[in-house]
Amino acid sequence: MTSEDPSGAALPATTSLANRYGGQKRAFGGKTRRNILIAGLLVAIGLLAWITMAPSGPSVSYKDVGYSSTDATQSEADFQVTKDPGATAKCAVKALDSTFGVVGWKVVVIGPNDPKASADGGQTTVHRTILRTESQAVSASVDNCWIDSNGK
């Protein structure tokens, strides 16, 4: 395929296409590619350092041990809490009826532990709390625990 320029001479097809649609795009040069790669690596290293060095807050975990329901107005929940011995935690304990409706709720404050109180340095303690209930409960368990930032 050829075309003619204004003087009537034949032009190669690639030249006429370049005039019509623009020239070929240039690829990044070696220096530009290297700079982009270095910038990407620096961002990745910075992100990794930020994730690694970010302060993680104190943690708390809990485990339900058991429950008992003495009558329609009260239930007991037994649970373990593992936390830093010097921290104060709060745990929300709930009692449920046979339709999984909440019939009792209580927030229990767990203060600092004696480090000599258990084999793990006072991190794990066992607790029993009594919940008042609106009707007969068929289970009682810890809903959630968190570190009280005002209690330390």
What does the model show?
The protein has about 150 residues and is α+β, with helices and mostly antiparallel strands. The chain has two helices and eight strands, in the order E-E-H-H-E-E-E-E-E-E. The chain has helices spanning about 15-20, 30-55, and strands at about 1-5, 10, 60-70, 75-85, 90-95, 100-110, 125-130, 140-145. Strands 3-4-7 form a three-stranded antiparallel sheet, with no helix packed on it. Strands 6-5-8 form a three-stranded antiparallel sheet, with no helix packed on it. The chain has a two-stranded antiparallel sheet with strand order 1-2. A hairpin with a 5-residue loop joins strand 1 (about 1-5) and strand 2. The longest helix is centred in the first third of the chain and has 24 residues, at about 30-55. The protein is elongated, with a radius of gyration of 35 Å. It starts with a strand and ends in a 5-residue tail after the last strand. The model has no long low-confidence stretch (mean pLDDT about 85).
Give a nutshell description of this structure:
The protein is 22% helix and 41% strand. It is built from two helices and eight strands; from the N terminus they run ββααββββββ.
Which descriptors would you attach to this protein?
three-stranded antiparallel beta sheet; 152 residues; 8 strands; 2 helices; elongated; alpha+beta; single chain
